Fold these 2 entries.
Entry 1:
Amino acid sequence: MKTFSFPVTSAVLMLLLAVGCTSTYKPVILVHGVLSGPSSFKTLTGFIKKAHPGTEVTAIDLFNNENSTKSMWEQIDGFAKVTQEIMEKSPEGVHLLCYSQGGLICRGVLSKLPNHNVQNFIALSSPLAGQYGVPDYLRNTFFLGIKSVYVWCYGLLKYFSVCNYWNDPHHHKEYLEYNKFLPLLNGEKTHSEMAEWKKNFLRIKKLVLIGGPDDDVITPWQSSHFGFYNNKESIIEMKKQNFYKKNPFGLKTLDTRGDLIVCTQSGVKHVEWHSNLSVFEKCIQKWLD
Ligand SMILES: *[C@@H]1O[C@H](CO)[C@@H](O)[C@H](O)[C@H]1NC(C)=O
Ligand SMILES: *[C@@H]1O[C@H](CO)[C@@H](O)[C@H](O)[C@H]1NC(C)=O
């Protein structure tokens, strides 16, 4: 027996050393935006690994490119499954960073997964209160005109992802009645799972909202901070929104707890958010500890 004790002891020692050398940074999960995929996060993954060596970063490879226009609920089910698998291998918890449309997908995932261990959730330029605008590069070719989009979005195109968060401030009644995604997620319309979703969502430690005035896609850009248009297209900021004041999904709770962080950066276009080092250093890095 004695002959075995040395190798066993050294194996235990090596294991202890290995554990000691392992990074203490939690794994990071990245969720991409519309008409995009995990490859869009190459630069960001580099930033994270350089700042926090040893971090395990997973850009989820699901609903890429054209598949990212499928209905939000369908995508949420898919992303929830993969997120769950990663979390089960990471009992210490993970961080979730979600870009653009991905921010709404992640909110759905966090609302629906009862035992998730997401610590910090970062929504990077996401249309959290909805979208009412067409990017400049589409405007000239856009045959409908923005005012009639709601007819399509709340009707025939209701399974098109962008329509799931199309929020026409001039047709709020139709939005509440026919949009089966955002009004439920934001608790603007009551539903039977509201309390459960809120409880699940509030398992996160911090909510970090990142956006800025030079974003040329998210409209209004304040939607990245839960602000939105009223029916005169004036901006109503987050704290004056009913979904903040009535607290149906926990936004006000997080704020009161001191766990809501808002980061504003000017000079950044929509497609640049995940590749800009100043944004990473100012708004992201410290929340990925
Ligand atoms: C989209 O989904 C289909 C079916 O699930 C799959 O065959 C296809 O490869 C996907 N496309 C992309 C770009 O991932
Ligand atoms: C990052 O954004 C800032 C504005 O906040 C800008 O001045 C800078 O040039 C950008 N950097 C890159 C590499 O695009």
Entry 2:
Amino acid sequence: MVSPSNPITSTAFLLYLAFLLNLVSAHNFSELFHSNWAPDHLVDEGNQIKLTLDTASGCGFGSKRKYLFGKTSVQIKLVEGDSAGTVTAFYMSSDGPNHDELDFEFLGNLSGEPYLVQTNVYVNGTGNREQRHTLWFDPTMDFHSYSFLWNHYYVMFLVDGVPIRVFANKEEVSGVLYPKNQTMGIYGSLWNADDWATQGGMVKTNWSYAPFVTTFKSFQIDACEFSPENGTMIGKCSKVKQFRWDKSAMNGLSKHQSQQLGWVRANHLVYDYCEDTVRFPEPPKECLG
Ligand SMILES: *[C@@H]1O[C@H](CO)[C@@H](O)[C@H](O)[C@H]1NC(C)=O
Ligand SMILES: *[C@@H]1O[C@H](CO)[C@@H](O)[C@H](O)[C@H]1NC(C)=O
Ligand SMILES: *[C@@H]1O[C@H](CO)[C@@H](O)[C@H](O)[C@H]1NC(C)=O
Ligand SMILES: *[C@@H]1O[C@H](CO)[C@@H](O)[C@H](O)[C@H]1NC(C)=O
Ligand SMILES: *[C@@H]1O[C@H](CO)[C@@H](O)[C@H](O)[C@H]1NC(C)=O
Ligand SMILES: *[C@@H]1O[C@H](CO)[C@@H](O)[C@H](O)[C@H]1NC(C)=O
């Protein structure tokens, strides 16, 4: 047992605690990210960043490193008031033509009308897997957390810890490709998408409300990091399957999570590409079973 009266042991213990806390604590923006579009529209306030959109530009940021599997979370407070036509995105993406990508896109709306959260999954360059959800809170009033849990078994999209979508790895049974061999960066942005975002593009951005502002904070990346210096995963991450997001308990949803996902689907799912027979007369393979 650790005895606080032993100065060497207690120092080691405190260092160990600090190490543990550091693993789960949120990081400042500049440690992990840099601005990658219109730096003059992104304000780093230390404990949070503000992305602004005006008639001149939107803006965005990206991670300095790339990752393969893990859990990534951020807290976001979306554009208040009339946000119609604006889209805030939080996503992961690999580079190159046959890219993999996981998206949260927050579609703005008129004052008092609900935001929609659109999620999508691209594998080897192919997306077209949109789902849209309403939220059970007003995402413009306060910060809420949005996360990706990405392991060998599934990609889970979570809102305040509640799973809203699971994209399972069915590669071996159905041949549907799963994102697993391309490292991804982590990105955020705010831009004008009034050609499609709000009520199918019918409602345009009202620039008299500009600048539009979205705030991000509490960045948490608990993921395997790729070293661009030597082209390998860093340290123990070369054996990613050992990591906590891949433990056997993580190969399916817990009973509680299944119930939560069922509740979300019943109450907040407003669009699912799997059920869109106009776009897909033959349901996509991953939608079966
Ligand atoms: C993040 O920035 C804030 C404000 O500048 C500072 O108080 C805090 O100590 C920083 N945290 C880390 C982990 O660097
Ligand atoms: C990924 O897409 C490219 C280009 O369409 C194709 O040539 C390649 O075979 C695909 N990869 C797999 C594993 O199917
Ligand atoms: C990685 O996967 C993609 C899509 O599955 C494929 O196109 C590509 O050839 C793979 N690359 C390697 C190095 O296995
Ligand atoms: C905006 O509000 C309208 C009316 O309530 C709703 O139909 C629509 O789904 C909402 N969201 C978007 C992004 O259009
Ligand atoms: C934009 O907002 C202003 C200020 O509320 C309002 O007067 C104007 O009618 C709005 N424009 C459109 C096209 O709705
Ligand atoms: C690769 O580089 C990283 C630093 O980016 C280092 O931590 C790691 O030990 C290196 N791995 C090998 C096999 O050299």
